[in-house]
Write a structure and sequence with these properties.
heterodimer; B: alpha+beta; six-stranded antiparallel beta sheet; 27 helices; elongated
Chain lengths: ~50, ~800
């Protein structure tokens, strides 16, 4: 098989992987609330005070 | 003295409100009230003070008396309706918390486990103002959870609506995103694979050409049959009703494009129009997505269920217990506590109560009711608890029976402008294609099918279909910036047709929470003011509260109340530090007053036996009302629909043009019927209201706009919610919607111009895939640019 066909198939397969990732993101509710995750990642886990 | 006051002005560490003279200092921090201090204490004990470092003064004021009771959550029937998951060990619940407003809120609510070990985890959904909590049962319960949230200032809202349906799923939006994702993916790949055909393939690589074309065909299939499926469904539905909406020519274009392309590829005639086809659907879906701007945190569908409690204390046997409101029947004895809502029409069997009907009428001053009086559902009890005998079940009460009206059962009918245009468009296109086919059949039969298909392809009204969503989508965004939130894009088009505006009075054109107070008579000395202040502080009567707030700031705390009696319907009598204070109606204080006006309330004052004068309490009209009315009366017919008596008629007559019809003492049903009568007279009516008693009118009108001082607060079902701050721009807002019609017309003309160019190319038989591939995106993009640009100019011109 000629190399160009291999490349095209590879590129489409990679794109399909990203499309799948997008579906997963939509299904798992990542587009439901776009504000709180952006804040949540900035919260620090507080080190517990020494007893 | 004055300078000193300014220097002392401090804001509350918790909520950021200005602290009055009686501020509370705790751990070197000032608080405006005990409530705020308590929240701070709870948080600092549990090492949660990061709450205050993320944003300054993140709290919500605790000054307003809260007395939400959650004991009904202990009732199994009630809690089962709310819980999403429950087993022996743990439960999960999602609660609506309107107070969520900043990143500190998210932080605190997601660290609840530090406050209460039984809470396993909690997740906020900021855009919907919801909190999902998993917790261990045993010592902890749903009721304790609600009380914990209430204690830290995040009172959950639990009402009848949530029990009916556990959160509406937004599946529509999700499926649109998936469709858009697929269309975008295929569009990119089809473009890539189409390039070789357009740029010319050398003889050497000729063998790949067929592979590329078949790949294109493969990629186009999911786009046409999944992403574009809605257009076929909509076109089919519309044709069944013998009407050609805009989706009919689109669906026709898509089918012809697809079949023609498949035919070309299978018989190795040409590359087909796959890139135009996939691009067309992709652009249309973007338009849909852009227009579909929704406000998750707002609800436009609220009915009385959003206000009504889940359960109420009802007498069963000897004792009172929480009973679900749907199960209450006539004759039940119910116990309503301070701050609770009366869910059904009932008769009071207690001496005297104050009922706050602000949800219903917009009037925030409480109404006084005496023993044996009939009380309508929807009022909130303020003051001490009281018992009632239910007269009608919840669904048949005075207010709730409004929702049995047929107006609530049907959606507002509206034929979109673009669908009306598409009627003629579709017929014209079919006529042109048939005539062109006949012409070529005569001159050159080999080209007949090519031309016939070309015409249908090029006429596919992509740009036409995009002009409305992009215009209205931009308008929705501009209005959103100005704190006017529309339910959907159709409302913009309905606004364009408005010729009559009907206003509710209380709470809509008057300011619900403020009163204009003045004192007429001999001036009062500071000491006398302090005496009166002390006396009215003990009274819960709404008028006493207004007088109290008028005298706010004079309090010294020096005076002691020695005796206090409140005479129902007359006034108060008190002895404050030896001085007799009498405050009330003219008869109560033996005041002969001839100069009264129906539009104001009067409170007469007698100090130490001598008559001193009267407090005059007037409604306050919203700021800028006069200006708005001046602007609106030029262009619209105005009307007033008020549930109150006609006491304000004279004041209103000064503001509104002389010909304005004013209807007073209107019941909720009357309001609905008045709007209906106007509509049958051919008027297109916009209703501006606020309370539940306007719900029928808002629903019946062509555009129902709810005015609210706090957007996250409840407002009745409507088409648009407007923040009270924007009220003075009402004329500009309607103007923007009206003028956007011209933007849509302009873009219609542009897209028709493209169509004429495309059609002439098609009729001549020159429409190659390359021409189609250039013409289609070009027309769509230029229409999008044109509309967004015009809307920008318009909103700039109107200073919105």
């Amino acid at each position: 098989m000629s190399v160009i066909l291999v490349l095209i198939i590879t590129s489409i397969v990679v794109a399909v992987v990203f499309l799948g990732a997008f579906f997963w993101a939509v299904k798992s509710g990542q587009y439901d609330d776009t504000y709180s995750p952006s804040v949540r990642m900035l919260f620090e886990d507080k080190v517990k005070k020494k007893k | 003295m004055v300078a000193e006051e300014i220097a002392q002005k401090t804001v509350c560490y918790h909520c950021g409100d200005e602290c009055a003279s009686d501020k509370i200092v705790h751990e070197e921090k000032s608080f405006c009230c005990n409530g705020c201090k308590t929240v701070f204490e709870v948080l600092s004990e549990n090492d949660l003070c990061d709450y205050y470092s993320l944003e300054s003064t993140p709290g919500v004021t605790q000054k307003i008396e809260k007395n939400t009771l959650f004991d009904f959550l202990d009732n199994q029937d009630v809690s089962r309706q709310l819980l999403e998951y429950a087993d022996q060990e743990q439960e999960r619940v999602t609660l609506l918390i309107p107070n969520i407003h900043c990143s500190s809120c998210i932080w605190l609510l997601e660290h609840l486990s530090r406050l209460e070990p039984a809470i396993m985890n909690s997740t906020t959904n900021f855009s919907q103002r919801k909190l999902t909590i998993n917790y261990k049962v045993g010592d902890f319960s749903l009721r304790k959870l609600a009380e914990l949230l209430d204690r830290i200032g995040y009172t959950p809202v639990v009402n009848l609506e949530q029990a009916d349906e556990k959160g509406p799923e937004r599946t529509f939006n999700k499926s649109l995103l998936v469709k858009l994702g697929i269309a975008g993916f295929c569009f990119g790949n089809v473009m890539l694979l189409s390039f070789p055909d357009y740029l010319g393939i050398s003889a050497l690589e000729q063998s790949y050409q067929q592979t590329f074309r078949w790949l294109n065909l493969l990629l186009a299939i999911p786009v046409v049959f999944y992403s574009g499926s809605e257009y076929f469904v909509s076109a089919f539905k519309s044709l069944k009703q013998r009407f050609a909406n805009i989706d009919v020519p689109i669906a026709l274009g898509v089918i012809v494009l697809f079949l023609r392309s498949v035919y070309e590829v299978t018989f190795d005639i040409g590359p087909g129009y796959f890139d135009s086809l996939v691009g067309l659907i992709f652009f249309l879906l973007i338009g849909k997505w852009f227009q579909n701007r929704t406000y998750d945190a707002l609800s436009f569908e609220r009915d009385y269920k959003s206000y009504f409690p889940l359960a109420i204390q009802t007498k069963r046997g000897e004792a009172f217990s929480s009973i679900a409101v749907q199960e209450i029947v006539k004759g039940d004895e119910v116990l309503i506590r301070n701050g609770e809502l009366i869910p059904a029409d009932a008769i009071l069997i207690e001496d005297k109560v104050y009922i706050d009907y602000s949800f219903v009428t917009g009037e925030s001053a409480a109404v006084e009711k005496a023993k044996g009086q009939y009380v309508f559902a929807g009022g909130k009890l303020s003051g001490k608890q009281a018992r009632f005998i239910v007269q009608k079940p919840v669904s048949q009460s005075y207010l709730t029976s409004l929702w049995n009206n047929e107006a609530f059962k049907k959606e507002k009918e509206h034929t979109r402008l673009v669908d009306r245009v598409s009627q003629y468009f579709t017929i014209t296109i079919i006529a042109i294609s048939v005539m062109a086919a006949i012409f070529w059949q005569v001159t050159d039969p080999s080209k007949t099918w090519l031309v016939f298909c070309s015409v249908l392809i090029v006429a596919c009204p992509c740009a036409l279909a995009l002009s409305t969503p992009f215009t209205t989508g931009s308008i929705l965004r501009v209005l959103g910036r100005n704190k006017v939130y529309l339910k959907n894009a159709d409302v913009v088009e309905r606004l364009q047709k408005i010729d009559t505006i009907v206003f509710d009075k209380t709470g809509t054109i008057t300011n619900a929470s403020e009163r204009d107070l003045s004192f007429e008579g001999e001036g009062l000395t500071l000491a006398e003011k302090q005496l009166v202040f002390a006396a009215v502080s003990s009274s819960t009567h709404p008028l006493s509260r207004f007088v109290k707030s008028y005298l706010e700031g004079t309090d010294s705390g020096k005076y002691v109340i020695e005796s206090f009696t409140e005479h129902v319907g007359q006034g108060i009598q008190a002895v404050v530090s030896g001085v007799e204070v009498k405050l009330g109606s003219s008869r109560f204080v033996d005041f002969n007053d001839a100069q009264t006006n129906h539009s104001a309330s009067y409170v007469y004052l007698k100090l130490g036996g001598s008559q001193r004068g009267r407090f005059v309490i007037r409604n306050v009209y919203r700021g800028g009302l006069r200006g708005v009315i001046q602007q609106l009366k030029e262009k619209f017919k105005l009307a007033i629909l008020s549930g109150d008596s006609d006491a304000e008629r004279q004041n209103l007559a000064k503001l509104f043009p002389a010909s304005t019809p004013m209807h007073f003492s209107q019941k909720p049903d009357d309001k609905l019927n008045t709007i209906k009568a106007m509509q049958s007279a051919g008027q297109s009516v916009m209703m501006v209201g606020d309370g539940l008693n306007d719900a029928g009118a808002l629903k019946q009108s062509d555009v129902g706009m709810a005015v609210s001082e706090d957007i996250s607060n409840f407002s009745p079902a409507c088409d648009a919610i407007m923040h009270a701050d924007t009220f003075h721009r009402l004329d500009a807002i309607i103007d923007l919607a009206k003028r956007s019609k011209h933007v849509i017309y302009a873009s219609f003309f542009l897209s028709l111009a493209y169509n004429i160019v495309g059609l002439s190319i098609a009729v001549a038989g020159w429409l190659t895939p390359l021409v189609a591939a250039i013409l289609m995106p070009l027309s769509s993009i230029s229409v999008v640019v044109l509309t967004t640009f015009f809307v920008k100019i318009l909103s700039h011109k109107l200073r919105l």
